[in-house]
Write a structure and sequence with these properties.
The complex is a heterodimer of chains A (171) and B (212). Chain A is 17% helix and 32% strand. Chain A is of the alpha/beta class and 171 residues long. Chain B is of the alpha/beta class and 212 residues long. In chain B, strands 4-3-6-1-2-5 form a six-stranded antiparallel beta sheet, with no helix packed on it. Chain B is globular and about 30 Å long. The N terminus of chain B is likely disordered. Classes of the chains: A alpha/beta (171), B alpha/beta (212). Chains A and B meet through loops of A and helix 5, strand 11 and helix 6 of B.
Chain lengths: 171, 212
């Protein structure tokens, strides 16, 4: 998959999702994650950050993270601000709610390189964030069924934890 | 050994082949070949390549004999246009920090202090716009809620001016403001950071936006 490419799966919508009264809303800040067996419409804004959404079609449980930096290198505090920790934490919390890893489907968003001058650079922060997520998902054998990554614009993402639907608006 | 040029001096750390930059006002680009001008002791090799930008506080490894050495060495870069001594200078990247909080200004300055950046300060949005037009920064860190002119208003003013329309701007928001950062992107911000600012995150975003 090209970091700058765009592929929409059948579970990604191009129009805003309708809000139902039974679906709670949440805003996900950078460095946070949300996993729930309840129905949530989770909104987050991504620049070079990446959000990985995992959804279990068997249990209808979903979760999303929003990480800023590719991997924890020992500097600072290990937290879900780092991709390797954020994705592992997402998997762990889904497992705690009864989700089986082999059932999970993944979607990934963000990783923009917002400056034209650096678009061709291979090691921009956004690119690194995309790469760490790709590697992690591959190592866990979780299929990536949809993504909208790279490019030069920020994104507004809404993810539904109950049906795995994602809606992305370029900013 | 005589320190031949205080702007280009490094100090050899005792008992170690690791060299750390003692005093340096310029940045040597990654991959620069550096050689000693006048080494007075034996090196296995008299040149080395920097693995990263070499500036004050950074370090590099060379092949040299171990020993108790504490000297200042002058160096020059092979790939650099050599003018007269002291004139080889690459201007440090300039970062404009716009925030009405004295504490936040100090924190940001402290986080960026070890990096080879020139920091310029403004204490409200209007001053931020004026300082940006006056100093041509390479990057702007902008608070949102400020007197006289908010960060979003300043952002729009900077984007509408040809002189500053392409400067990377990072909005520094509170959690509540982060939810309206969509407005910031629509106005032309490049990134946002949520307070409390984390130094690792700040440096990573600054370096990435500066192309380091």
């Amino acid at each position: 998959m090209s970091p700058s490419g765009k592929t929409y799966s059948d579970r990604m919508q191009s129009s805003p999702p309708s809000q139902t009264s039974e679906r709670a809303t949440a805003y996900l800040h950078p460095g946070q994650l949300l996993v729930s067996a309840d129905s949530y419409a989770v909104t987050t804004i991504l620049g070079s950050c990446v959000a990985v959404c995992l959804w279990d079609p068997v249990t209808k449980i979903g979760g999303i993270n929003h990480f800023l930096l590719p991997s924890f290198s020992g500097e600072g505090i290990a937290s879900p601000r780092f991709g390797n920790i954020a994705i592992k934490e997402l998997l762990d919390q889904l497992a705690q709610l009864g989700s089986q890893k082999h059932n999970l489907l993944a979607k990934m968003f963000g990783g923009a390189c917002v400056l034209e001058a650096f678009r061709q650079r291979q090691h921009h922060l956004g690119t690194k964030n995309i790469e760490i997520a790709q590697e992690f998902l591959k190592s866990e054998s979780i299929p990536l069924v949809g993504h909208d990554v790279g490019g030069q614009r920020g994104r507004k993402l809404i993810f539904h934890t109950d049906d795995g639907t994602a809606w992305v608006k370029p900013l | 050994m005589e320190n031949r040029d205080e702007h280009e001096a490094i100090e050899l750390v005792e008992k170690s082949p690791k060299l750390s930059v003692h005093s340096c006002t310029e940045m040597f680009p990654k991959g620069s070949k550096i050689r000693w001008i006048a080494p007075k002791f034996s090196f296995l090799s008299n040149s080395f390549a920097t693995g990263n930008h070499l500036a004050r506080g950074s370090s590099a490894w060379v092949l040299c004999a171990r020993g108790r050495l504490s000297v200042h060495l002058a160096l020059q870069t092979r790939n650099y246009p050599q003018k007269t001594k002291g004139e080889i200078k690459m201007a440090a990247r300039k970062i404009l920090i716009v925030d009405d909080s004295e504490t936040m200004l100090q924190v940001a300055q402290m986080m960026l202090a070890k990096e080879p950046y020139d920091l310029v300060i403004a204490r409200d949005g209007a001053e931020g716009v004026a300082r940006a037009l006056e100093t041509n920064p390479d990057l702007i860190l902008m608070d949102v809620m400020m007197p006289k002119m908010t960060g979003f208003e300043a952002l729009r003013a900077l984007r509408s001016n040809d002189k500053t329309s392409a400067v990377p701007i990072v909005m520094i928001t509170t959690k509540a403001e982060a939810e309206s950062i969509e407005t910031g992107y629509a106005s032309g911000c490049n990134e946002y950071i949520v307070k409390p600012v984390d130094s690792v995150e700040l440096l990573a975003k600054v370096r990435s936006l500066l192309g380091d």
